[in-house]
Structures are given as structure tokens and as C-alpha cells.
Specification:
Layout lengths: L1 E7 L2 E8 L2 E4 L4 H7 L7 E3 L4 E2 L9 E5 L3 H6 L9 E5 L22
Antiparallel strand pairs: 1-2, 1-5, 2-3, 3-4, 6-7
Length: about 110
């Protein structure tokens, strides 16, 4: 199951991506997660909607690194006892296909 946040008809809400359609869940992603339920609604053709950031306006972004053992072996990097945990700026969350905003003061950071 692929949960998405999408915009259609001027409204942004959560949905489930199913083939070429998005099933409208009729609420925001935060509301869907908080309720623990998904009230399936109408189907919207994927080409009639714009995907947005998966979790718009997150309070915090927690990330885990050094947890993909096959890649660590490829890189000849020892597997750590614990994965690396770190936070990311909430401003780093964008939708698929959106432009990455590079600060003018540091254009070489990417």
C-alpha cells in the first residue's frame, strides 16, 4: 500500500495510490494517521492530481542511516552496533519532482 498526499480540485488530502488512480481518504495525512482508520472515498485519476510532500508540515523528521547491510557490504563499511539516528530540517521535505532549493549563500552544497 502506498499512502500519498495529493492535491486535486484545490484541496489537499491523503490518499492511497492504486495503479493509475488515487483513492481519496477524505482527510489530511495527519488525521488519517491519528485516527488509525482509512475511510475510502472516490477514485481520482493519478493524472488529474498533483502529488505533494508525503507528510506536509511535519513537526520533526527523524532519520536512520547505516541500516542497509547490503549497501554497507558494497561500500566495505563495517555494520555498526546501532544504526545512526539523526534529524533533518522539516524544510527539506518536498514532493516528488519539486525543485530542490539551494541557498544562494552555498550553491555548491549539493
Amino acid at each position: 500500500m502506498k499512502l500519498v498526499t495529493f492535491e486535486a480540485d484545490g484541496r489537499t488530502r491523503a490518499g492511497v495510490l492504486e495503479g493509475d488512480d488515487i483513492v481519496d481518504l477524505g482527510a489530511s495525512m495527519k488525521e488519517v494517521i491519528a485516527s488509525g482508520t482509512m475511510k475510502r472515498g472516490s477514485r481520482i485519476p493519478r493524472n488529474k492530481a498533483k502529488l505533494r510532500a508525503p507528510m506536509p508540515d511535519p513537526a520533526i523528521v527523524l532519520s536512520v542511516g547505516m541500516n542497509y547491510h547490503e549497501h554497507l557490504r558494497e561500500m566495505k563499511t563495517p555494520v555498526p552496533e546501532k544504526p545512526a539516528a539523526f534529524t533533518k530540517s522539516v524544510a527539506s521535505i518536498i514532493a516528488s519532482g519539486e525543485a530542490i532549493k539551494v541557498p544562494p549563500s552555498n550553491p555548491g552544497m549539493l
